[in-house]
Design brief:
Layout: E1 3-7, H1 11-23, E2 27-31, H2 34-43, E3 50-54, H3 62-71, E4 78-82, H4 87-96, E5 100-103, H5 108-133, H6 136-144, E6 150-151, E7 154-159, E8 162-165, E9 170-173, E10 176-179, H7 182-193, E11 198-200, H8 201-207, H9 221-231, E12 241-244, E13 248-251
Parallel strand pairs: 1-2, 1-3, 3-4, 4-5
Antiparallel strand pairs: 6-7, 7-8, 8-9, 9-10, 11-13, 12-13
Helix pairs in contact: 2-3, 3-4
């Protein structure tokens, strides 16, 4: 049974979600504001398998809650609900650390499908982590694999002493591990698959985030800044994730 925290200040919506999620076999708790959610998730370290998080909350917004959770190294899957469906708001949610988003009003069946996807991914990650802990030999092979080699249904890509594990949402470098959100991992996957080629901001927005409306493409730059902190020796002088002025970005695995 999965344990889900619903963070929603509209009581009728929160109780409706509780009822329907419980009907699907989940254990559900409700928090009416961001501060209560952070108290349970961070201060009390309660364990949940997923969080359904509204953006428009009294006090701390859903953006604030997601960002603080990631800052505290809590990587519980987050499905963000937003009445503000502008592409810039969607990008802000992903930048804050959300794993998926759903604009209001939404169809219950779609919310359930999105949530079940996050729960399956979370369960798979836990199983993969347990298997990796018990099999050092396979782990060493995975760390040295290039992109495209399969590992327990997942894949990895290694470059310059770093390994991106797309299945486990991790970036490993020199004994350190950085946990990635789903969108960070998908963005890196997109760049890796386009290695050496220039990709435009517009194509990134469409292919990674599925945003097809007119969008201020500069919103994606904040995402790039964070990824550079993960993969560059000197983020102020990037060698792997390069800016192509006026166009977009290019990923170079082995810079000269």
């Amino acid at each position: 049974m999965s344990r889900v925290l619903v963070v929603e200040d509209e009581a009728h919506l929160a109780q409706g979600l509780r009822f329907n999620l419980q009907a699907e076999g989940h254990a559900v708790e409700v928090a009416g504001d961001g501060e209560t959610a952070l108290e349970r998730l961070v201060e009390k370290s309660e364990r949940f398998d997923a969080v359904v998080l509204d953006v428009m909350l009294p006090g701390k917004s859903g953006f604030d809650v997601a960002a603080l959770l990631r800052e505290k190294k809590n990587y519980v899957p987050i499905l963000m609900l937003t009445a503000r469906g502008r592409p810039e708001d969607v990008l802000q949610g992903f930048a804050a650390g959300a794993d998926d988003y759903l604009p209001k009003p939404f169809e219950l069946a779609i919310l359930m499908a999105r949530l079940e996807s996050l729960l399956r991914r979370s369960a798979w990650m836990k199983g993969a982590a347990a298997a990796r802990a018990g099999d050092d030999d396979n782990d060493d092979k995975a760390r040295s694999a290039r992109f495209g080699e399969q590992k327990a249904g997942g894949d990895t890509f290694s470059f310059c002493g770093k390994t991106i594990d797309f299945a486990e949402l991790e970036l490993r470098s020199l004994g350190n591990t950085i946990h990635l959100t789903v969108m960070e991992a998908e963005f890196l996957r997109y760049l890796v698959r386009s290695e050496g080629r220039v990709v435009s901001r517009k194509s990134i927005l469409e292919d990674v985030w599925g945003l097809h409306e007119d969008t201020d493409t500069r919103a994606i730059d904040n995402f790039v800044v964070r990824l550079r902190r993960y993969i560059e020796e000197d983020p102020s002088s990037p060698k792997h994730l390069q800016t192509v002025r006026g166009v977009g970005y290019r990923f170079v695995a082995e810079p000269v």
